[in-house]
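Assess this:
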Amino acid sequence: MANIASADRVGTKRLGAMVGGGVPMRDRAPVAGVLLLASLAAACTHQSSDTARADLLLDPSHPEWTRPSPPVWRARFETTKGDFIVEAVREHAPIGVDRFYNLVRLGYYDDTRFHRVSEGYIVQFGLHGDPHVNTAWLHRQIPDDPAHGSNVRGTLAFAMSPEPNTRNTQIYINLGDNTRNDAEPFALFGRVVEGMDVLDRIHSGYGEQSGSGVRQGRQGPIVEGGNAYLDQNFPLLDRLMRATLVEDQLPERASEPERASEPEQASEPEQAAAPQQASEPE
């Protein structure tokens, strides 16, 4: 009987020493140490990843920026008004689509602003929120693709100036049928496939005053001041919070509107009668 009582006392002590998951108290310190190390390793990995991405944004000459895109792909844009999805087709503008693909893939457009919005006309974005990144990309223009497609509602292309080879990082999306701009050699390479109503709701109250287009020469303050400048002077601008590739969708081959055979003559933006009546994306 004494042996049984002794055994019971030992069993009771052992049971009392057990903690969640059946780990004896004497083993808690090693387990806690392992969990702490794992947590620190995860935090370091995340921090290292963020640092690597920040370094990459400052180095547009890195080979990662020239990776060819898939033939057809989609990207989701998360904004302060909701999400929209665009589809890009590489054969419509191979040089431009490769650039756009990598800008999305590597997070260039994350936490930026829709700096130019003309109601019923276009919405434009693509200047970075960090002035150092803007400086790094200032002279990283790409060669022109041949003109392609028509500026109908929902299509998109790179903004550019009249001089050759001036496309860089800025994208415009047509909010209306702007076929008069087909007189310019824009290479339209994509279209909005979901969320066009989101784009219609992007704040347009500032019109051409919050940065305007490339050729009008008024984007210097954004390049030099980034988000801090825009948020202080144009606080109602909507934000592009994140752009990501959509991996779980396999889009069908996109049909691209044909370029209008007799486009209307595009007027010069400097001659626009009102800020929101700019004549062409730029």
